[in-house]
């Protein structure tokens, strides 16, 4: 004979609330038979329902994990865009520094040349 459980016993075995078990019975997800005073759930039906519940939990966890991955991808994409913009700004700043160094070098050279010309006269 198959072992039978009350909804309270099933809830304890499944580590869920009694109301969760009652909802599963009412929805037809967890087969049960009306006993003398309460619903009776066969051990095999309870084990099958638990397997489905664990599968759903794994799917939900996978969905959350996938959602986190998508959030991370979006964040990485944003950081890559920001990095490209910063590199472009750095290149522009380096080019400006190079031009300023050239200008300062030319001015310095012109100043030295002018000073030397004054001494020659």
What do you see in this structure?
The chain is mainly α. The protein has a single domain (4-120), classed as Orthogonal Bundle (Multidrug-efflux Transporter Regulator, Chain: A, Domain 2). Helix content is 79%, strand content 7%. The protein contains three helices and three strands; from the N terminus they run βααββα. A three-stranded antiparallel β-sheet has the order 1-3-2. Helix 1 crosses helix 2 (18-27). The longest helix has 78 residues, at 43-120.
Short characterization:
With 121 residues, the chain is mainly alpha-helical. It has helices spanning 7-14, 18-27, 43-120; strands at 4-5, 33-34, 39-42.
Amino- and carboxy-terminal Cα gap:
125 Å
General form? rod-shaped
Q: Average pLDDT value?
A: 81
Q: In the CATH hierarchy, what is the architecture at level 2?
A: Orthogonal Bundle
Number of strands: 3
DSSP helical segment count: 3
Features:
single chain; 121 residues; mainly alpha; Multidrug-efflux Transporter Regulator, Chain: A, Domain 2; three-stranded antiparallel sheet; 3 helices
Q: Topology, please?
A:
Layout: E1 4-5, H1 7-14, H2 18-27, E2 33-34, E3 39-42, H3 43-120
